[in-house]
Structure formats: C-alpha cells, structure tokens
Amino acid sequence: MYTPRKKILWFAIVSRIAVFILQAIFNALIPNHHADVFRRPLDPAEKVSPWDRIVYFLLDGLTRWDGEYYLHIARYGYTYENTLAFYPLYPGMIRVVGVVLLKVLPMLNIQSAMILAATFINFACFIKSAIILYDLTERVFEDTVTAYKTAILYCINPAGIFFSAAYSESMFAYLTFYTMLASIRCMPTIYFPLALSTLVRSNGLINIGFPVYFGFKNICNSASRETRQKGNILSTAWYILKLMTLNNCFTLLSTIIISMSPFLLLQIYNYIKFCTSTYDTSLLPTHILQYAAENNLVLPGAENSAWCNASVPLAYSYVQKTYWNVGFLRYYRFKQIPNFILAFPMLLIMLHCVKEFLFEHKNEFYSLGLFDGKAKSENTNHVKKYPLNMFVFVIHGLFLTTFCLFFVHIQVSTRLLASASPLIYWYCASIMSYKCSDHVDSQYESRDNIFSKWKVFILSQERYTLQDKLVLSYFIGYTIIGCFMFPNFLPWT
After folding, report:
1. Whole-model pTM?
2. Start-end of H helices in 198-336
C-alpha cells in the first residue's frame, strides 16, 4: 500500500518517463521545422562518439527553442547580449552536473554530458516540486484528497514538455512552491530558496511577497487571539503594533535584503561584462565569434547598448524588448490570434478561479485574509469551496495573469503560470468529481490503485463528468501535442 506522497513520487516518475518516450518518438519520426531562431554554435573540432549519438537521438528533442540558450550559457557563459534574458542558476547547475558526468562517463563529449545534466536536473526538480506542491496544498486546504488530486494534475500539467526540456520551469516551480510552503511555516531559512528563485526567473522577485505576507499574518492572528475577549478593533490594532518590534522588523528586512542580493549582484555582473571594456573577446572560441559576426550579435565589452547608459542599467527588460519585442500590448496583432487561442484555457482557468475566490470571500476581502476568521465560519453551515488561506496565492496569480495578458508573448502564459502558481491545479482539483468510494483508511484512492505505482484515479475512474473530460482533455492533450510540436521546432507555448 502506498501513501499519498509515495503515490505522487511514483506517478511523477512515470509521467516524466512518458514525456521522454513521446518526445523521442516524435523527434525521430517527424523532420525538424527550419525555424529562424538562435541555434547554439557547436565546436566543429569536437569529437562525437557512438555514445554521444545515442544521447542526441534520445534527448536532442528536449534542447529546442530556449533550451539552445541555456545549453550555450552552460558551456560558454554569457557570450552574446541576447543571452542576458536567461538567468544563471539553471545553466550554472547544468555546467556543474555536466562536469561531474564527464568524470563518471568519460566516453561522452561535453555537449552530450550537458544535455544529460539538463535532463537529470529537471527530472529531480520536477519530482521534488510535485511532492512540495502536495505538502503546500495539504497545508492550505487541510485536506489530503484535494492535495493528492492537485499533485496528480500537476504531473500531467499542460506545459509538461517544458518541465522536461532544457528549460528552467521545473527548477523554478520547485523553488517557488518551496518558498510558499516555507513562508506559511515561517521557516527562518526562507531567504535561501527565495534568493535562488530570483536567479532562475525574473518573476522570482515577486515571491518575496510571501514571507512578508505570512509574517504579518502570524502577527495579526496572534493579536486576534490575545484580544478576542475584548472584541475591540483598536485594541487589536494596538497589540499588532506592540508585536511589530524592532527585532521582527529587522528579521523581515534582512530576509528581503538577503533574498534580493543575488539578483542585484547579477545586474552588476552584467553591467561590468557588457558595458565596460574589461572583457577580452579574443578569449572566446573562433566559432563563437564567427556566429556573432554572421548574426549581428553584440559581444561583451562592446559598450554600444542603450541599456548601459540608462539611469538604472537593467539588461533584462532591454533585451526582451529589443530581441523579442516584449512590451505593453505589443503582442496584440491579428497574426497572433492563434497564440491567443493557445493560451486561452490557462488564462480562463486562472481568472475564473480568482473570480470565484473573491466572490466567495467578499466579506473578508477588507481584512486581506490576514485573520483566519474561524470563529465566523463555525457559526455558519455554508461550506466554502476555497479556504481563506488562499488569499495571497490568488493575488499572486492575478498579478501574473494580468502581466501575461498585457506584457508577454501570450503563448508563454501556459508554462509561466503552470510553473509559478498553484491556482490552476487547485481549481481543477476542486471541480473534478472524483471521490473514493472504497472503505479504505486514506480515502484518496481506490483499493486497487493504492497498491500500484502508476495507477491513479484519472486513468481508472468509472464515470467522468463533462468537467472531468474537459480538464483531462486539456491537460493530457496539451502534453501530447507539446511532445509532438516542441522537439521538431514547431511553435508551441
């Protein structure tokens, strides 16, 4: 018999193996589309063994699109200005693990070792993120079944191919969900995963709001408990002010500073490398310099980029705008309608979840969810669909969804939201009809399934409602289509 967490562990492994197999089959059967995008320049003198060819055959489909950038950065660093749009922790880990793999598997060249490293890192991060999401959901909903359904849906999420490809989605999801859980638990080392998340994706900075919110929430709840007998708002406010001592403020401020420090150091590094003449480009390999000349790419130390002379020299926004045309409403063109359709299900689910939560908790909205309000809920027979603990997650999800709607390439919304917010999984888990009818202690799976490593309710449910079919069609359908499109350089999310 498998516990919920162990079932999730095994199903996460099975789901990743399924994605690996599907992408390898589609990559072998379908010829690649000749997309006019960045291709990492390869060393022509590098030897390729039969073992390398096996790695390429099995995993080369996972290196497309942004994966080309990550693998290039992992091997050569930030050699071109457009690579500054990709943050360093993930490619840095690829390089470290790749070097270790070369020691263990000397028959491989550096390129195939790094492809293996990228795959291994994402495999490990995805499994850990699935388990962390289960723990997070169980803490927020205080319900094992909802937590179990949430984690199972995460394992087949519609951006599944990106969680296995050489992308930072799996690592970012792991660090983000861990930050959320650690914030609820008020762990003193919260700054560690938080700081790392800012080195994986730019929206990792938004995660700083979680420890700030839950730190203040704990103070408010402590004050509420102490002044409950008085029932006076002024006395509660006064007690909150007393709890906000210099020590608490210093702890919160130090967490913010430590969490943002890696991000600030990265900006300094980018400026020194690309905006000063200290970097000697002659140290770069010939094929790297040749690729830059052929594609008009800006090398380090060129000192001719507009962002270098800005009052706040941040490379990320400049690179996104210059190389990918990212900006407010810049993607609203008739030719992008197919991409809007592609992102529509994710955006609709997110907005519908936000709307339902805010409508259900409209009476508590003024308090920003800072007070548990259990006393109120005990006096009513109405069972709410969403716990008030979701408040900060809903605001976080709403911010990201709004940002996706107006600023980013709209098709990116699917993978961005799937790796940064648990809302889509919580909403879909709440509308699915599955309930275990067997008389087993756990009540999360049927009797037959709890003895299987891979059998779960979505594969063996006897009756499916229309909502069940829509959710599973979206999740599984996008996963399969993604495994077909992505490895062949066809446009996907």
Report:
1. 0.92
2. 209-226, 233-243, 246-275, 286-295, 315-324
